[in-house]
Fold this protein.
Amino acid sequence: MNTPVPPGDQGAWEGPALQNDAPRSVATRHPSHDPDLRAGALEALCLCDPSAKVLATRALDPLAAADPAWRGTPASGIPGRPDRPVLVAPGKVPQRSIHTPAGRAALLHALAHIEFNAINLALDAIWRFGDMPETFYRDWLKVAQEEALHFELLAAHLQSLGYRYGDFDAHDGLWAMTEKTQGDVLARMALVPRTLEARGLDAAPPIRAKLARAGDHDAAAILDIILRDEVGHVAIGNHWYGWLCAQRGFEPVATYAELARRYQAPRLKGPFNLAARRTAGFSETELQALQAE
Ligand SMILES: [Fe+2]
Ligand SMILES: [Fe+2]
């Protein structure tokens, strides 16, 4: 199996620079004057050009100060994103056979779009939610930087097939839940990392197998990296969900059911990747509740 080339060796990703970032990337403070990690995350979130967002995310310093009392306001709509892909309703994204090059590219494009949104959701957790321990911000920076790697690997592979990020329509389910939960960090942890990212743990192995069967071993190797890292992202979600439940005196399993109902979270269908979910910190009670739905 070929191992994907490290991103640093791939050269700059030449994705669509469809908008001038200058008017949209102004957060309340400039990073050159304010190295605060949370302010820098908002700057990166506002960037529209994918390669600029990847670079800005990677440039955030895990050792920078992360002030829980900092409050910022985005100068424009978030997340910053390019004009393409065109966003359509989930059912409107065409399904194609993976056995054609265009179909395989469409699948890889859908995954790249998930990763692009995942960069945004991790950056959003850093700037938006104040009054959390500093380790919360550093955990989500680790997620953002790994999502940037996932996006870059997929975008580069897509380019090797003759396509670019933006060439296919995409849907916005991941960001929609990020927006819905913007008022409560507990709901965000419950329904984004522990629900939508956790669904990726179930989805990744069959997609990897399909890509390998189609002979795309580079893509399969990228899926291996993604699955490995996503277990860690879900674990971070589980850790902070548990921490917040303890802080508020909530029982985690019943609270999750209530939040899923209140925010109309998608019902998760099996088969579940129970081994990966256990590694990511779901309890046996939670796994039983999941399978009983
Ligand atoms: Fe990812
Ligand atoms: Fe993730």
Remarks:
- The pocket of fe (ii) ion (ligand 1) is lined by residues 115, 118, 147, 150, 226, 230 (CB under 6 Å).
- DSSP finds ten helices and no strands in the chain.
- Residues 7 and 194 are 28 Å apart (CA to CA).
- The chain has one domain: 87-292.
